[in-house]
Amino acid sequence: MDNPIQEILEKQLLTVAKAMEDKLDEEIASLEKPDEDDLEVLRERRLQQMKKMAEKRKRWMSHGHGEYTEIPSEKDFFAAVKASERVVCHFYRENWPCKVMDKHLGILAKQHIETRFVKIQAEKSPFLAERLKIVVLPTLALIKNTKVDDYVVGFNELGGKDDFSTEDLEERLARAQVIHYEGESSHKPKSTAQTKRSVRQSARSDSDSDE
Length: 211
Prior knowledge:
- This protein is an alpha/beta fold.
- It has 7 helices and 6 strands, in the order H-H-E-H-E-H-E-H-E-E-H-E-H.
- The protein has a 6-stranded mixed sheet.
- Strand 2, helix 4 and strand 3 form a beta-alpha-beta unit.
């Protein structure tokens, strides 16, 4: 049976390769009289870029990117946050709004393998819920470089109803710069200085308590 995650990875690598080909063509066109040395430098640069991207995507996949998975414990939350530069964490309970959010996050996890998409049951994570002030469910904690940088609380920013589209959520995550998005949204990221709460110290404290 074919591996759907591998297929997604291959398609994205082809997209990156095509973008690099186009960029190379532009650079060649910008040279008035390109000689063999110029072309060789550009080709080598492109190959190195492709190699780095392939290595990065391989590392992402090894850390669980490309799938929407449940984190079983608070300790695993801290491990996930430290392992990935960008994480979208859904604090949920077993109710209809959270199931709606699950559906969209499952789709986005496959489309944006640069970001780790996870869920954790709020009622079984009292320390995290209290520290991050999780009150309304569903709440998405948008984490960059081990810090909670922004939140999506309920559906208020998604039209206020449960019939919002995956694209609506995608654009919201893109405004927070927790995913790479090449759509037509022209919204600039809002300042989230007030919402930043470091989980690095929490991770350290949690790790120390388990030693």
